[in-house]
Specification:
Elements: H1 3-9, H2 24-34, E1 46-51, H3 54-63, H4 68-71, E2 75-81, H5 86-104, H6 107-129, H7 135-148, H8 159-183, E3 187-188, H9 196-202, E4 210-218, H10 235-238
This protein binds flavin mononucleotide (FMN).
Residues 11-12, 14, 67, 69, 189-193, 213, 230 line the site of flavin mononucleotide (FMN).
């Protein structure tokens, strides 16, 4: 399939064919492709829980309000945001970047680039992702808004802004996953209709982790699980050329 054909093929499928199994390795590969999604500051504050165990599938399906898509899913992938991993990932990025800069940056620029990375991942990222009962978010917001009175400044730095950042990133990974699945004829249905407290408990996630999306997977049974033709608001209502 071309990219356009794949995008047209992907639909939210709410009923999967009981007789058609998925190849776990292929689904795993699609999850790996999802990690190629663009993501904020390359922090990759996401995790992917690939559920294949039949018993666990049933329990998760119940936490997803027993929706038909989860009840008939052959596998389920849960997309999770992990703000709490920011220090670990910053360190991994710096470890990688040291060699990356040495290999690819012009010699005269290497020192400055390395210093910039150090400031960004050792100071800016911990400042952005640190929480301290949500109080740091308020401090960041006041600081950023004050600076923006004098020069352009990113002001979306509060506690809830940072949650949006990691959910945006994770959503891009989820979409990349669904496109990769569609390309091999596998179907998905993104869900936000679930009890996140229960899903978190089942996956033994820490408090600060959040469920971004639950994606049941399987293979469509004709048009049974597709609710008719696709509706989109007219393109000229949403397209603004400036
Ligand atoms: C964030 C998000 C949450 C969604 N939650 C649900 C859900 O809980 N149950 C459901 O049946 N569909 C859910 N959907 C699927 C949408 O209803 C679907 O994408 C939309 O109707 C467009 O249809 P299409 O995906 O076939 O193009 C969700 C989609 C997104 C992106």
């Amino acid at each position: 399939m071309s990219l356009q054909e794949t995008l047209e093929y992907r639909r939210s499928v709410r009923y999967f064919d009981e007789a058609k199994e998925l190849d776990t390795e292929k689904v795993k590969h699609c999850i790996e492709l999802a990690t190629l999604a663009p993501n904020s500051s390359n922090m990759q504050l996401w995790e992917f829980y690939h559920i294949t165990d039949p018993e666990m599938l049933k329990i998760i399906s119940h936490a997803c309000l027993d929706q038909k898509a989860t009840e008939t899913a052959k596998q389920i992938v849960v997309f999770v945001t992990r703000r709490d991993l920011h220090r670990k990932h910053s360190k991994a990025i710096l470890d990688f970047e040291k060699g990356n800069i040495a290999r690819y940056s012009p010699p005269e620029r290497q020192e400055k680039r390395w210093k910039d990375r150090l400031v960004y991942y050792n100071r800016v990222m911990p400042f952005l992702y640190s929480r301290f009962l949500g109080l740091l978010g308020l401090l960041r917001k006041i600081l950023a808004t004050s600076i923006s009175l004098f020069r352009p400044m990113v002001t979306t730095v509060s506690e809830s802004d940072v949650r949006v950042v990691v959910h945006k990133t994770c959503g891009l990974a989820a979409q990349t996953f669904m496109i990769a699945m569609a390309e091999i004829g596998y179907d998905t249905c993104p869900l936000e209709g679930f009890d996140s407290r229960r899903v978190k408990r089942l996956l033994k996630l820490p408090r600060s982790a959040e469920i971004n999306m639950v994606i049941p997977c399987g293979i469509r049974k004709g048009t049974l699980g597709i609710w008719g033709e696709r509706f989109r608001v007219p393109f000229d209502e949403v397209y603004k050329k400036i």
